Records
---
Amino acid sequence: MMEIQGSCLCGAIRYAVRLPFDKFLYCHCSRCRKTTGTPHASNAIVAPDALRWLAGQQNVQRYDLPTARSFSSAFCKTCGAPMPRLTRSGKRVIVPAGSLDSDPDEKPACHAHWASRAGWYSDDPALPKFDGDAF
């Protein structure tokens, strides 16, 4: 059984998640855009028993959006980095792929909530690419 590790920006929280993911996707819903500050969240979906906390679970802060039936977010209390979270139903864990410490050797399979994508978002392959800062 393969596992991959992840952590927050400051290193206070560490976890391991079992591979392969059940689903791996980009989510363009407005809530994911707000919690990540990016045009989409990159989310890996796994069963609850596929996640194992290695350190700092007490440093995870959860926020359940009161106006939503199921949306929540989780983040490090110290650095604010998005962290894995159990869905309100308790049936799945959503792992922010940006918190993984290495490449899972899997690629996202779809774009969820494509109709809700940010109007300024572009997946134009002709955009220039830089190996370092572009600002």
Note: Residues 3-115 form a domain with the Metal Binding Protein, Guanine Nucleotide Exchange Factor; Chain A fold (CATH 2.170.150.70).
---
Amino acid sequence: MTNLRSCCRLIWVVLLGVATPLAADPAFRDLSDTLPVTHVYAGGWEHFVGGGVAVFDCDSNGFPDLYVAGGDNPARLLRNTTPSAGAPLSFDFPEPPGLGLTGVTGAYPLDIDGDGHLDLFVMRVGANAVFRGLGNCQFEPADAAWTIAPGAGWTTAFSATWEGAAARPTFAVGNYVDRADPNGPFGACDTHQLFRPGGDGYLPPETIAPGFCTLSMLFTDWRGSGQQDLWISNDRHYYVTEGREQLFRVSPVLQEYGDGDGWLTQKLWGMGIASRDITGDGAPEIAVTSMADQKLYSLTTSDGAPTYQSIAWPRGTTAQLPYIGDEGRPSTGWHVQFGDVDNDGRDDLFIAKGNVDQMPDSAMADPDNLLMQQPDGIFLEYGDGAGVGSTARGRGAAVTDLNRDGLLDLVVVQRRAPLKLYQNVTTGAGNWLKLRLEQAAGNRHAVGAKIEVQADGVSALREVQVGGGHAGGQAGFAHFGLGAATSARVRVIWPDGTAGPWASAEVNGHGVIARAGEIETVTWDGPKY
């Protein structure tokens, strides 16, 4: 992986900006009123945080569906009924049995049992729930069958990876404040759990400690070694003084990185995590949302030490104040996600914003951010002009192509306000490519793999991950904007470290790269899941 990082760095330095820039201002159409039901994330103290959305295709028609947390309201599955690629977005509300739980803070899709159907890990205030996907958007409870202890805490974070050739994932479950602590809530952060597979299900969970009131966690191969470590972002509002951001080794045993390893102490109101290599050196930058300054961490060493510094200020991603209105109080960031909104070949950054509830020292009218990356690597604010600058209390979100036209659409969950649905209608956007991975068994969708795309000499890298954001995630196709490039090639670094061959890619198409033993096949525009 060191060679991959060096190669990517050289390509980036020599060819940055070679692709023809596109003058396409992002534009979104608000289709929230077309949703079949008004969905609001609501509730008291326990639902000041959370409010995530899981995005996955549960009926195998190629159009992603949504499972949205409701807090005190029931969680809802919204089935994507968009009739054809590029058509206006449409959804129905099928109400499958079992999914309409209350107390839900968020959910993440992944294939736990390797049967090809995506399952759901549902986070709650109280007992969590695990649902096995049966196809056609039908589910059955699976926590007992898979011996996954549901817990009884206040779960706000989740991430998963596969260790070696394991048939099932190892996953981390993050909890917020220990509601049973009589001395809380301040300084009363709960511990977390790590679930490893064993037998036909899961072993009793290991404790991840200390816990510092996490609101997001993400497994990431941050140094390109093939080893997945767990980044945990924590909320200093409740840990007060004794907490910090955390990084844990998970394999072969749990071990927290510390100062002696090069991990520097950082204290944030950590809300959400996203990772993406935006510098072209083969190592992901890590975006972390907070109150006031948002962070964008970049690895500063090449010796294997996890030493980071924030490059948010020079890159223009601090987004510390509202950009419309006359608010002088600082912003509060929640969900964060990279995605190439205008397909110009440069990743952009969406941040959901909103006051916790009535915090007087933070902005009340706090618009969501759409930060568009420019040819020089600087990000500029386009949220208001693009039509996505809602000033309601944003929480979880998803930047994802919902109608298979290659343009990334947007879903935003809002506290005490209706769910927002935006269709990307940007004109003059660039070319694109979407890719999904398959393996024969176990880790069916190759979580932990890296997809590398080269177009017009510029290399882009994606790590297949489960976790991060704020209380929700996605499973499906990885999206690449290609700018003006009319050809591209792709290869996969599989989770076991095997580098597949370079293959030609169909521009403006959906590709599935499947591996069976030593053989890779690439299929375009199918099969779908």
Note: Residues 2-15 form the longest helix (14 residues).
---
Amino acid sequence: MKVEKTKLDGCVIVTPPRHGDNRGFFSETFSTRAMEQADLPSNFVQDNLSRSATKGTIRGLHCQAPPHAQAKLVRCLRGSILDVAVDVRHGSPTYGEWVAVELSDENGSALLVPTGFLHGFVTLTDGVDVFYKCSDHYAPETEMSVRFDDPDIGIDWGISADQATLSGKDGEAGSMAEFVTPFGPDGGPR
């Protein structure tokens, strides 16, 4: 398993090896042992699958507050996405900074988004399936969100707001200036 650091501490790209032959390929996409050997979290309790029909669909930016904060291991099973993580850990030297990584069925990579980060993605193709492992169960009462096109964050999604397909909830998300982070510098409770 290849692990690449990003500019945000704890947010890493994980790429498992693929073993190919004339039939296609085989890849072990998750192993608790491999994650632990790489000193990465492996305590995932819930798997989610989202399907987006059209290119330009944006989901995010979301997180769950403690005590139900979620680390996520995000992988694109079909099509491709630009996956984004934003550091919202109070006191972090990279607070408000973001990383974007292209994940696709072709590259097989995953992005590990630790607790203390907002997460979102934009679909780069039609017909996209995104699979993600979560370290805590869904708890709607702890959901928090920031608008995807917030100027204080300044994410380059590759499309304008009027081209994006959003849920009503994501379209009504608040600003980064209004966001009060519940996370301390280590991603735990503040």
Note: The chain is about 5% helix and 35% strand.
---
Amino acid sequence: MFTGIVQCQAHVVAAKLEDAVLRLVLSVNKNYLQHLDLGASIAINGCCLTVVKVESPAGDVVGQVHFDVIDETLALTNLGQLRPGHAVNFERSVTFGTELGGHIVSGHIHTTSEVLERIDSEDNCRLHLSLDQKWRDYVLYKGFVCVNGASLTVGELSEQGFWLHLIPETLSITNIGEAVTGSVFNIEVDQQTYTIVNTVQRYLQQHKP
């Protein structure tokens, strides 16, 4: 479980496909690798991955963390597009005492979204994202949505998807600041909204007059 508050950006050292499995190696400040065990869960661009190896050389500021990404995950997310040098959003899983500054995030990606338009102003940035029709019932005006692992608020709805209104802090901490037209982001809809909408729709379907 995660909060959608991105802790830092990690950078891709290697992304090699072997037998339909992506061997992904990331470099990250060692402060974020403390007490990190094999089998731990980390959200990478919002996708929950399992740590298979940790390298934290003495004297170095930066360590490396390794993941294996299976074909189903590659099909559902943007992780298959990663190349050496790319930045990814990094969040370790929630522990007791963690501040829940965003919203509860599972790390299970529902779909991907393409940037349709970017509008920058002095104080903020507006991003227009596409969204498959299948998922639009779960993305509400002023509701939560997790974009590349970042807990964000839906600013507007559109015929194609939705708009985000982003402050400079979000743009600097996350890789969303690098967005251009055509960029692809991982999307996880809010689990509470998903459950409520599905429950109501199922009830109405079962109790048609």
Note: The longest helix spans residues 191-206.
